[in-house]
Amino acid sequence: MANFGSGMNLVYDRLRDRRAFSITESGAMAGDFEGLRGHRHAVLVTFRRSGEPVPSPVWFGIDGEGLAYVFTERKSGKVKRIRNNPHALIAPCNVRGKPLGPAVRATVRVLGESDWPRAEQARNSIYRVWPQLYDRVFFGGVPEDTVYLELAPRLS
Asked: Can you name the residues that pair with 93 across neighbouring β-strands?
């Protein structure tokens, strides 16, 4: 099933709205993730070593402490980029990545499994059962080698 997931990512890359690439560090606001509330998708912008931005529309959740969480494959490009540079941007978007509001600067870390319950609760507060159904239909359950990313607002 891992090949199917990779194939789905290629489809998503082709469908991605070109405006997702217009989100920049200079246009980002410092602040919190309140602008994400009420939205079902966000575009997470991570950066290659060269500084080139890479937007990825994602499902996310926000906890009561103002932290955001994203579920992704451990071997995904965004995880590799975050390990090299934990600074990212996140903005509300539609399913294809078209920005629907201002971006917020964030610092991202990969969570250990012991921190997953808080992240799952935040994600499930928005989507209820949809992520679980998606995982079951396309991957036969929770995909192996997955992780949660935790995003904290970055003030500068």
From this structure: 41, 99
By the 8 A CB rule, do 4 and 138 touch? yes
Give 71's strand partners.
148
Q: What is the pLDDT of residues 37-58, one digit of tens each?
A: 899 899 999 999 999 999 999 9
Give CA–CA dist 89/30, Å, rounded. Answer: 10
pLDDT at 144 exceeding the cut of 90 = no
Q: Indicate the pairing of strand 68-73 with strand 87-93.
A: unpaired
Please report, for the chain, the start and end positions of each structural domain, with discontinuous segments joined by +.
2-153
Query: How far, in Å, CA of 115 to CA of 119, rounded?
Result: 7
What does the pLDDT look like over 14-35, one tens digit per residue? 677 877 887 877 676 768 999 9
DSSP state letters, 4-69 = HHHHHHHHHHHH--GGGGG--TTTPBPS-SGGGTT-SEEEEEEE-TT--EEEEEE-EEE-TTS-EE
Decide if 67 contacts 98 (C-beta within 8 A).
no
CATH topology of domain 2-153: Pnp Oxidase; Chain A (2.30.110)
pTM > 0.90: yes or no: no
Q: Cα-atom radius of gyration of the chain, to the nearest Å?
A: 14
Question: What per-residue confidence (pLDDT) applies to 55?
Answer: 93
